[in-house]
Amino acid sequence: MTVQIEVQPFSHGFDCEENETILSAALRQGLLLRYGCKNGGCGTCKIKLIDGDIESDTRNSFTLTPDEVEDDWFLPCITQAMDDCVVDVSQMELTEEEFLSGDTSLEFETEVAVNEPMTPDIRRLRLRIKNPDGMEFTAGQFANIQIPGTDLLRPYSMANASRERNMLEFGIKVLPGGVFSDVLSKDLRVGDKLVVHGPYGDLRIRSSHRNIIMIAGGSGLAPLLSMLHHLADKGNIRPVQLFFGARTLDDLYYLEDIQSIQEEMPCLEFIPVLSESWPEDWAGATGMVTDVVKEMLPSLNNYDAYMCGPPPMIDAAIPILGELGVRPRNIYFDAFVPSASAA
Ligand SMILES: Cc1cc2nc3c(=O)[nH]c(=O)nc-3n(C[C@H](O)[C@H](O)[C@H](O)COP(=O)(O)OP(=O)(O)OC[C@H]3O[C@@H](n4cnc5c(N)ncnc54)[C@H](O)[C@@H]3O)c2cc1C
């Protein structure tokens, strides 16, 4: 059965087939809804249902809060229409021209420049962009890497400075049994070709006069590092505190990069937090990164917060940041949802 989706504020409609997501239907008909990971993990495509009936996979509690679900917000990338629907896309801040012009994200041919371990389970992947010439991305955004020989896409955040136009660097956690993880850790060699789509996502540094707290867990350091490069490039003087939660000393990485950013931007304080085990002479913080934030910064009244990492860390940190005084609208994050488990 084909149903009609009416899109407000543009009063424009499109068809949606049975078993087709609302996002796929819009893109197929040359209309743009902003999107990212296409599997419910990033929240970029969040829009509101005004009328009609939908069936949505809402397992990603960190992408949509229970209040948002209650309030009829949904993710068209993982939602099918059961009946004619009216949706409101105002939240996406699209002009009518952008909406009618369709998807303008690009496909890039790239070549592997570096594929090496940084920790026991995180690899540095650097891709040289061959065609078209360079990706214009904003620090904090991500790209979808196409798994060779398949149509499968995996989202990864850029870790490098956006000024490095012809290079994309990723810090990728190798997940046991993960499809791209296997390719990355076993097969991918320097010189191999990879197709990358992007850029996507709206995680980026917002201009404000407030201090900045950043919280990273595991491979979540990648986009925050790119954002730190951006702040240093802009001569930032807002105090920035970067908390990085890792299990052991061996799981810390990008330390030299952080140190060289600190030399350029002395207002950056780096607080690594080890949760599982640490050497006797470890003078740094230990425990859960969120507990250390609470101990060190009992009031975050004048802060913007940026976070990236595994969904449980984001889920734990959001209420704590709220209790400490960060306004919900000043909390920005990407939860690194594994694709296969989100689909
Ligand atoms: C916006 C965004 C940005 C991201 N950026 C980064 C980044 O910079 N670095 C990074 O490391 N990660 C990042 N991620 C997460 C990353 O995309 C996933 O970890 C990645 O998709 C894993 O791909 P894979 O093919 O290796 O594993 P997948 O094949 O997707 O499998 C992932 C895990 O799920 C398990 N699994 C497989 N099938 C199922 C199933 N049916 N049900 C439940 N579990 C299953 C697998 O065993 C494996 O452990 C990001 C995610 C998002 C949404």
Automatic annotation (TrEMBL):
Residues 105-206 form the FAD-binding FR-type domain. GO terms for molecular function: 2 iron, 2 sulfur cluster binding; monooxygenase activity. It comes from the Bacteria. Its cofactor is [2Fe-2S] cluster. Residues 1-93 form the 2Fe-2S ferredoxin-type domain. Transmembrane segments: none annotated. The keyword Transcription regulation does not apply. Pfam families: FAD_binding_6, Fer2, NAD_binding_1. InterPro entries: 2Fe-2S_ferredoxin-like_sf, 2Fe-2S_ferredoxin-type, 2Fe2S_fd_BS, Beta-grasp_dom_sf, Cbr1-like_FAD-bd_dom, FAD-bd_FR_type, Flavoprot_Pyr_Nucl_cyt_Rdtase, FNR_nucleotide-bd. Gene3D superfamilies: 3.10.20.30, Nucleotide-binding domain of ferredoxin-NADP reductase (FNR) module, Translation factors. The keyword Ribosomal protein does not apply. Keywords: FAD, Flavoprotein, Iron, Monooxygenase, Oxidoreductase, Transport, Ubiquinone. This is Alkene monooxygenase reductase. It comes from Alteromonadaceae bacterium PE-TB08W.
